[in-house]
Amino acid sequence: MRIVLITGISGSGKSVALNVLEDAGYYCVDNLPPPLLPPLVQAVDRDGTDKLAVAVDARSAESLVDLPGNIAKLKEQGHDVRVMFLTSNTHSLVARFSETRRSHPLSHELHPGENPASRRTLIECIAEERERLSEIENLGHLIDTSELSANKLRSWVRELAEVERAPLTLYFESFAFKVGVPLDADFVFDVRAIPNPYYDLTLRPLTGKDAPVIAFLEAQPSANEMLQDIRNFIAKWLPSFKTDNRSYLTVAVGCTGGQHRSVYMAERLASYFSATERVVVRHREQA
């Protein structure tokens, strides 16, 4: 089994790393006490799971001493165990906790007899956590995320875990403006400026997937020009979204009723990009 163990300082990106592995098909467990690692591996192994990712932090302080031994035993059993230790400088950690307005995990701990009003400050919590994790810092690959963007961290985690990046899925969706713009759209194109087949009584019952409507719209210079402009825009910016580690990109094309022009455009765009991309086309106003 491939086992990726993620540990390190709170606020350094453990959740980002765990999410990357979850998206890659790993069975993920957060904040697992180290003594439970061997039985967890046994349980998921019996279920046929071949990829496991586990995050461990300083809240398991008393049992962290068991972690090196547990890792060694798993390797002896033939498991491929990879350890990532994420850290960051104190200045960056303070800024991140301030931005998210979340409390440090150790801020809720009290020493025996300690007054609840005298909880540790954020700086004290970070220092305490560094001390607790100092013994396991050199167990695996150290990643300093102080000046690292979340996007770059995702890429590094994929490389270290040998995870292939899932290809971006390009969604083309037709819709009717009279019903409303899709909330999940990344880009919205309005094709209502194109002549409307609806006003031809023979075309009205049809849709943008029917040959007579297609012939009508292909004969319109404005339809061809708009189609080309939309193609060029998507082709220009699609590489940037891939670089940004996007899993999908939704392009919504709207007309008045969502039956003719938008359907035609979505179908033509999907056909064009399906030669090189993973494409899904859907028509919101059609049953």
Automatic annotation (TrEMBL):
Q: Which residues bind ATP?
A: G8, I9, S10, G11, S12, G13, K14, S15
Instruction: Provide this UniProt record's keywords sorted from A to Z.
Output: ATP-binding, GTP-binding, Nucleotide-binding
Q: Which residues form the RapZ-like N-terminal domain?
A: 1-159
RapZ C-terminal domain boundaries:
169-286
In this chain, GTP is annotated as bound at: D57, A58, R59, S60
Tagged with keyword Mitochondrion: no
The UniProt entry, under InterPro entries, shows: P-loop_NTPase, RapZ-like, RapZ-like_N, RapZ_C
Record's keyword annotation contains RNA-binding: no
The UniProt entry, under Pfam families, shows: PapZ_C, RapZ-like_N
Q: What is this protein called?
A: RNase adapter RapZ
